[in-house]
């Protein structure tokens, strides 16, 4: 065979062997290439990721410097839940440490000292043919647990003698975050017992605080120097209609264990008052109000009042102010 014939035969063999080598190099050779995307826009995320990481091992993302500086998280050791509640008691006198925890630590972190004067009701009371006035104020000074309270209230009619007035001095001690127990004395300036030129003193034991549903409660027992036992329960609730407009329902009940003719008090339910006051707080420390109230005497208390020619109850229109310092 001539050289030209040999060269032609070698070229033909090379052309025939090229597709076989291409299929060995590309495993997808021989498949329909029309089904494969021809641009990044046509490839899905998995295909792009496979192509980007082909031949490489997936490595975790490196930690940031902040993460690297954090200590490893682990549960506390079992020993943390054993031993006494106050470990210092195992070294020092437990009674001494109890006193330190109760007093010195409180002083170290800021023992509270304060005072407040609240004039809850200072009002004009318009009644049918008998206009009058009323005041109800209280103030305290003290700390977190113990306070000294001074309370006073009274009422009367214009152009007439003072009908009733009293003042109380009470020691108050917190028995829970919501309630204080109070004990002290009360002195009635008016009314004076018949045949006496002086008022009457009482021992006081009471409870004051905030009941569920934000109901402010003040209940007290009074034992006079003559052995007469009476009680008073007051309750009020602030219903905030807006940030400044507040509706306050209020009720008061007076009770007595026996008849006290000298002061016109009958046994059982003596009197009941219920009213609504709508106040507007220009500032929290100053809030004028208007309202209505219904009052009624009961039992022998009503009979004593009738014998003296006094009213036994009715409606009143109220205009007043509530302020505190």
How does the SSE layout of this entry go?
Elements: H1 3-25, H2 45-52, H3 65-69, H4 94-108, E1 113-126, E2 132-143, E3 146-157, E4 162-174, E5 179-190, E6 200-211, E7 215-224, E8 229-237, E9 239-240, E10 245-256, E11 268-280, E12 286-297, H5 299-307, E13 313-324
Antiparallel strand pairs: 1-2, 1-13, 2-3, 3-4, 4-5, 5-6, 6-7, 7-8, 8-10, 9-10, 10-11, 11-12, 12-13
Keywords:
325 residues, 45% strand, alpha+beta, single chain, Porin, 18% helix, 5 helices
Kindly describe this structure:
The protein has 325 residues and is α+β, with helices and mostly antiparallel strands. It has a domain at 117-324: monomeric porin ompg (Porin, Beta Barrel), CATH 2.40.160.40. 18% of the residues lie in helices and 45% in strands. It is built from five helices and 13 strands. The protein has a twelve-stranded antiparallel β-barrel with strand order 1-2-3-4-5-6-7-8-10-11-12-13. A hairpin with a 2-residue loop joins strand 2 and strand 3 (146-157).
């Amino acid at each position: 065979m001539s050289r030209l014939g040999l060269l032609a035969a070698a070229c033909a063999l090379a052309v025939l062997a090229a597709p076989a080598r291409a299929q060995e190099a590309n495993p997808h050779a021989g498949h329909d290439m029309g089904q494969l995307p021809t641009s990044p826009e046509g490839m899905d995320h998995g295909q792009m990721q496979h192509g980007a990481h082909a031949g490489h091992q997936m490595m975790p993302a490196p930690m940031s410097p902040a993460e690297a500086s954090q200590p490893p998280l682990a549960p506390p050791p079992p020993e943390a839940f054993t031993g006494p509640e106050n470990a210092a008691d195992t070294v020092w006198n437990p009674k001494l440490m109890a006193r330190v925890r109760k007093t010195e630590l409180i002083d170290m972190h800021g023992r509270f000292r304060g005072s407040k004067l609240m004039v809850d009701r200072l009002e004009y009371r318009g009644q049918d043919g008998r206009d009058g006035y009323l005041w109800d104020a209280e103030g305290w000074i003290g700390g977190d647990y113990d306070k000294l309270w001074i309370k006073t209230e009274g009422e009367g009619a214009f152009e007439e003698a003072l009908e009733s007035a009293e003042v109380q001095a009470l020691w108050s001690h917190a028995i829970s975050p919501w309630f204080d127990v109070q004990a002290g004395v009360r002195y009635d300036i008016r009314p004076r017992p018949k045949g006496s030129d002086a008022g009457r003193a009482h021992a006081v034991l009471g409870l004051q605080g905030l009941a569920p549903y934000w109901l402010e409660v003040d209940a007290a027992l009074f034992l006079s120097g003559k052995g007469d036992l009476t009680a008073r329960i007051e309750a009020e609730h602030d219903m905030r209609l807006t940030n400044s407009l507040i509706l306050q329902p209020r009720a008061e009940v007076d009770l007595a264990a026996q008849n006290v003719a000298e002061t016109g008090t009958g046994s059982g339910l003596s009197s009941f008052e219920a009213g609504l006051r709508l106040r507007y707080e220009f500032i929290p420390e100053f809030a004028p109000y208007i309202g209505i109230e219904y009052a009624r005497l009961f039992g022998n208390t009503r009979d004593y009042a009738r014998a003296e020619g006094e009213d036994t109850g009715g409606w009143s229109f109220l205009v007043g102010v509530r302020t505190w310092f």
